[in-house]
């Protein structure tokens, strides 16, 4: 069998070089390209045709989740493992829903990272034990979101909470890996369900009815 061709995407030069050195020591792994943002990762996939991308999440120009979505849309045969320091469940869900086959934390031992690359290359899906535990806990607690009389979905409540905190539509979109247009559609639906005309009125009504906490 040939070597597993891997493209590395991370905006930190030290991380890129460290991964390059460590993974190049594996006989069956070949680093074919480096990218410092999501846009470069997409371009690198076109140029180098890797088997897999190790993708950071928080990068300039284009984040890793959006880059993953583009790669899976254009080149679905390429597998993606998110390699990040983010431990929030929403990032895992966003990554997996956009096609990533793995989600690992940067604290992983190099030997385990190489093993994970082999697992995903062979067709498996891999999530770090820490993140799997958090996902199970989140599901068991219903994401800590209360049932509500207005029929708001968990995503709508999540956006409502961010609205109430003063976040702009663009910031909400970036934090949830959605387009700004999608966020605006959610907000219109929220206003309609709550029968309100603005974010302050919506936040006040949600608090008064117990949908969300202060």
Automatic annotation (TrEMBL):
This is Response regulator. It comes from the Bacteria. Keywords: DNA-binding, Phosphoprotein, Transcription, Transcription regulation. The modification 4-aspartylphosphate is found at residue 56. Residues 145-210 form the HTH luxR-type domain. The keyword Cell cycle does not apply. Residues 5-121 form the Response regulatory domain. PANTHER family: TRANSCRIPTIONAL REGULATORY PROTEIN NARL-RELATED, TWO-COMPONENT RESPONSE REGULATOR. The keyword Transcription regulation applies. Signal peptide: none annotated.
């Amino acid at each position: 069998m040939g070597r597993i061709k891997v493209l590395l995407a991370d905006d930190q030069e030290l991380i890129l070089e460290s991964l390059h050195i460590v993974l190049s020591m594996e006989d069956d792994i070949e680093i074919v390209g480096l990218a410092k943002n999501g846009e470069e990762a997409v371009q690198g996939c076109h140029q180098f045709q890797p088997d897999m991308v190790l993708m950071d999440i928080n990068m300039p120009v284009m984040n890793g989740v959006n880059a993953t979505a583009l790669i899976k849309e254009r080149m679905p045969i390429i597998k993606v493992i998110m390699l990040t320091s983010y431990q929030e469940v929403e990032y895992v869900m966003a990554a997996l829903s956009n096609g990533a086959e793995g989600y690992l934390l940067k604290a992983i031992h190099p030997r385990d990272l190489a093993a994970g690359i082999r697992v995903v290359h062979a067709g498996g899906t891999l999530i770090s034990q820490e993140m799997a535990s958090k996902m199970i806990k989140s599901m068991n607690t219903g994401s800590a979101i209360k049932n509500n009389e207005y029929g708001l979905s968990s995503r709508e409540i999540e956006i409502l909470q961010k609205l109430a905190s003063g976040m702009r539509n663009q910031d909400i979109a970036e934090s949830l890996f959605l387009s700004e247009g999608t966020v605006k559609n959610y907000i219109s639906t929220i206003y309609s369900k709550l029968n309100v005309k603005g974010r302050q009125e919506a936040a006040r009504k949600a608090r008064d009815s117990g949908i969300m906490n202060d």
